[in-house]
Please model this.
Amino acid sequence: SPEAAMIDLDALGARVRAAIPLTAHLDFQFTDFNGEQLTLTAPLGPNHNDKGTFFAGSQSALLTLAGWSLTTLLARQAGATADVVAVETGLKYLLPLDSDMHITASASADDIHRFEQRLQRRGKATLSILAQGTSANGTQVCEYQGLYLARIGLP
Model:
């Protein structure tokens, strides 16, 4: 249910902020998870650079976090509590961003299916995440690709 998803997103946000102190300063908010796609937002205010636009380092941290969080949620959806790490990332900055940032992270249905099967069968699996950052008016400002590894931890 949407309510359960919001509770999970709030809990995940709190867990991230507690485990990774830097993320508290990014002031991000998870806004939606539909089983395949995660969205989050972050304000320009605490993330601006010397030019008054969104700092590239904040964008990188937020996109990496979005991929990590989506992989974590998909592992949980598959019934596993997994330790997730970023293995490889790539980021292209397309335009300067002078507003709040909106990020949509997703994986293909085929990749998710394969990820869930491998995680359950082998206890570990990788997942490719695609994410895009957009401005408040919906213009794409960056694109991100990340490969994440999930390992089922000990109880």
Observations:
- The mean pLDDT is 93.
- The longest strand covers residues 140-152.
